[in-house]
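User: Please predict the structure of the protein below. I'd like the answer in structure-token form so I can feed it into my own downstream comparison script.

Assistant: Understood. Taking the following sequence of 110 residues as input:
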Amino acid sequence: MPEPRPRAHDPAPIFAALGDRTRLALLAKLIGGTPQSITRLSADTRLTRQAITKHLRVLEKAGIVQSSRVGRESQFILRPEGIDEARSYLDQVAAQWADALSRLRAFVER
């Protein structure tokens, strides 16, 4: 199997951040591209603003969302580049699997 290309970023934090239902729900709210406050993001949930903030910080640390201050509030927006990194990694792994399966098929069909 070919060696994976060296990556500038470790994809593990991205996948760890995406591995939580609450964080996925937050991303779904941010998908429109409009910056949103913690108050708005915590609406329609049973979670406290502090809990939502912790989840947003995990997403921010993984490079999936970005925050900015607007007055006294923090606004969060989706960073598509973070999702693109995860997609790129998955595409690379899929290509490796496709190559391995092709070689296995060629071996079996000999």
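That's the full token string. The chain has one domain: 12-108.
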